[in-house]
Every structure is written in C-alpha cells, then in structure tokens.
Specification:
single chain; 453 residues; alpha+beta; Adenine-n6-DNA-methyltransferase TaqI, Chain A, domain 2
Length: 453
C-alpha cells in the first residue's frame, strides 16, 4: 500500500479520491502555483454545438484521425454517426477519452467531430499557444490522474474546465508558438523523407516480380461491354468488370512467379464480432484480453495496447474463440474507413478482433511478412480495390478475401529475402520519423523549462 500525506488546504474544493491527490499531479500543481496561471475555463469557452447531420461535404474527425502527442490530422473516410460535435477553424479539439494518449488538434478548417472531443474556443489566449500547452506534460500530469471509468476512462467536464494553464504575456506566448512551429516544420520535413522512402517499396516489389501494372484508370468510361461468360460465378456489377481491372490483372498474370489465391495458402480466414458498446463484455486492460479493431492494425506489427479496448477472458474463450489472434497472423481491414489497411500481429499477448478485420493464418511454407507486404503493395490493393463494393460503407466479405491473387515464389527463402529487403526500408523510414518525433520532444522540454523554470 502506498500512503501519501497532503495538507488539508489541498483537499478543499476538490474531489475526495486517491488519484486526485496523486504525487505527480500535486507536484505539477504546486509548480504551476509559483507562476502566473489561470483555469482553462477563464481563457477558453466550451463550444457545445451538436448535430445529427453529416453531409458528403463535411469533414469528420474521429479520435483515430488525430496523432498522439503532435496533434496532426490524418484524413480518413467518414463513417456513419448518430451525433457529432461542430467545430470551426481555430477551435481546439481536446480528447476527453483516455486523455493520457494526448490527442489535441488545433482545427485548420471547420467541420464535425466525435463527441469524445471537448471543443474549445480560445478567448483570452493565443489558440496556438493553448494547443501547445494542452499537448504538454504540464497538462498530462494533471489529467491522467483525473479520469473516471475503467473500460473507457474519461475526464469530467468540470475537471477539464479547472485545468491549470500557464498564462504568460502575449509576447511570451508568441515566442513559445514560434519555437514550437519551427520544430513542427522540421518534423514535417523528416516525415516527408520517410514517406518518400516508403513509397519506393512498391517499385521494389514489382521489380522482384518482373511486372509493371498499368496506370490507375480514372474510371471515366461510363459504358463498356463484358461477355456473359465472364459474369458466371463472378460479381454482377459494372465496377468489378471495369476495363482497367481487366488490363491490370492481365499484367499481373505475367509475373515470373505463379499466382496463388490467398485461400489456397491459408489454414484459416475468419473475422470476429463486436460486443455491444458499453456492455458487460468489456473490462479494463489489467483484467481483459486485447480487442483489436481495424484502426488499430499496423503494417509493422506495432500495436499501441494502451489505445485498445479490452474484453473479458470468458468472452474471448467462448463467444469469440474462433477469432483469437496469434503471432504472425495477418490482419486486413474489410469494412469502412480503413478498408484495405494491412497489418501483422507480433506479440505473445492474447488478443481478438472485431468483424471489420479479416484474420489470415498461413500454411507452412509461406512467409507471413512476404504475404503481408504483397497485400499492402499495389498488387494487393488492386485486388482489394476491385473487390470492395462502391457503396456508402465499403465492405469485402471473407470469401472475396480468399480470392485475392498474389504472385508467390515457390521457395520460402526467396519470399523471406524479399520481405527482409522491404523490412529494412521500413526500419529506416521509422528511424527518420523517430528523428522528427525527437525534435518535437526536445521542443516540448524546452518550452516546459521556459515556463516552469
């Protein structure tokens, strides 16, 4: 048992629970009280506009569309929603859910967002400065000890409103903004270098296979003819039979390695289910099994277990026993905004998946890293693009996943060599991106020292 002594003055007007008086939180508050500070509600107002309408023109931001720590916006395809918060350019989106993940976005445009964001309009403070502070350890030290709820830990509105914010002069605020902006620009340059490196992977794949796919069609042809014989046993829709796909798959057949269906090289292709949101199937990370959703999968097998939901062991072992995930299983997003994303599971931890993921477990003699990279490449994406249904919520079924055609060398040593070459590029790209992240971390540390001394 850990016992901490606090002064009675620190209890007055506060919630009486142990986490509220965690030494890390109290230490930060004591430091902040030595400088000019204010409460968040004194320099920003909560924008409480909610809508049930989401048009094709609206930009929607979910928690998954904001990067941790840096607050960058990652575009995604809109999902159907029941309610959304409305924000405008210059507002700050601050995540109430799992605030320790540090998802804070300074809006570069107007749009709509998940209601898990607390929308702030800066009133007596520079919005750029406020966003920087909300992403800093100054705030994290306060918020991570205020969350309530085990399965979906959130901040209460009153706790957000009463967060202590360093409040220097506007000149000093601008100095902080300029310093952070310079670091951010340096990081963006590193990200650009990493992106260019990753984009070279596709050329490496096609060179090894001895093929070059035709340029992507704009699908401008509105009328074309297909023999009835080609419709037998196939999808009966114009999109699937677009001439571009016919040309591309003809080129694919010219690979120096034989084409094999994913179903023919797999011992299992399956998907999971999603227990009712907020139901009793869920629990916390200490007592549960990791529940992977399509937005969680990663090409390198890196999964942030802090961001995951967790299901109870009895749900994992009974209702969802057929979709258990094991090391080297390949995961493909088959529904919605993330359709076509590919990942691999590299962990000994028990895990399960939802119905938006196709889990692929290969037979012996096939390298999972090679197959994963082929599905991720333009070859795999060609298959997935053809298979997905061009409807409001795109989807691909498991039988169609099994039909994916990829060129595979007969010798596993050749598969492994190609996969290793690609892996080395990904490692190098990650190292460059990490250099960019380090630049931001150093800037944050400098800013905190400038503010707190």
């Amino acid at each position: 048992m850990i016992i901490n002594n606090i002064h009675i003055d620190e209890c007055l007007g506060d919630r009486l629970d142990a986490q509220q008086f965690h030494p890390e939180r109290l230490s930060m508050i004591r430091r902040l009280k030595t400088i000019t500070c204010c409460k968040l509600k004194e320099v920003a107002k909560n924008v409480k506009i909610v809508t049930t309408c989401l048009s094709n023109e609206d930009v929607y931001i979910g928690l998954e569309n904001v990067t941790c720590g840096t607050g960058e916006y990652i575009p995604g395809i809109k999902e159907s929603i029941s309610t959304a918060a409305v924000f405008k350019k210059g507002d700050i989106l601050f995540s109430k859910l799992r605030p320790y993940l540090n998802k804070v976005y300074l809006a570069e445009f107007s749009g709509k967002s998940s209601t898990e964001f607390y929308i702030l309009e800066a009133t007596n403070i520079l919005p750029e400065y406020l966003a920087i502070i909300l992403r800093s350890d100054i705030i994290i030290a306060q918020t991570k000890h205020l969350v309530t709820g085990n399965t979906l830990p959130r901040l209460q509105t009153s706790d957000i409103e009463n967060l202590l914010i360093p409040y220097p002069s506007s000149t000093f605020q601008q100095k902080i903004v300029d310093l952070y902006t310079a670091a951010q620009n340096a990081k963006l340059q590193k990200d650009k270098e990493a992106k260019e490196l990753l984009e070279s992977i596709d050329d490496i794949v096609t060179q090894h296979l001895g093929i070059k796919l035709p340029e992507r069609s704009d699908f401008s042809e509105t009328k074309y003819f297909t023999p009835i014989s080609k419709l037998i046993g196939q999808r009966y829709d114009p999109y699937f039979h677009n001439p571009y796909f016919e040309k591309a798959f003809a080129k694919l057949a010219q690979s120096k390695y034989p084409l094999k269906k994913l179903g023919d090289i797999s011992i299992l292709i399956t998907s999971g289910i999603t227990p009712k949101a907020g139901g009793d199937a869920y629990t916390d990370s200490q007592n549960g099994i990791a529940f992977i959703r399509s937005g969680d999968i990663d090409i390198n097998g890196n999964i942030n277990f802090e961001e995951l939901l967790y299901i109870k062991p009895e749900v994992h072992n009974k209702q969802m026993k057929s979709s258990k995930v094991y090391d080297n299983d390949i995961m493909i997003a088959i529904v919605g905004a993330t359709i076509g994303q590919v990942g691999i599971y590299h962990s000994e931890k028990e895990a399960n998946i939802n119905q938006a993921i196709a889990l692929v477990r290969l037979k012996d003699g096939y390298d999972p890293e090679y197959v994963k990279e082929l599905i991720k490449s333009s070859i795999g994406q060609l298959n997935l693009d053809r298979l997905k249904r061009p409807v409001a919520r795109a989807n691909i079924n498991l039988e169609e996943i099994a039909s994916i055609l990829i060129p595979i060398p007969e010798k596993i040593e050749v598969q492994t060599a190609i996969a290793k070459e690609i892996h080395e590029i990904r490692v190098k790209a990650d190292a460059i991106k990490n250099e960019g992240s380090l630049i931001i971390d150093k800037a944050k540390a400098t800013i905190e020292k400038m503010i707190l001394g």
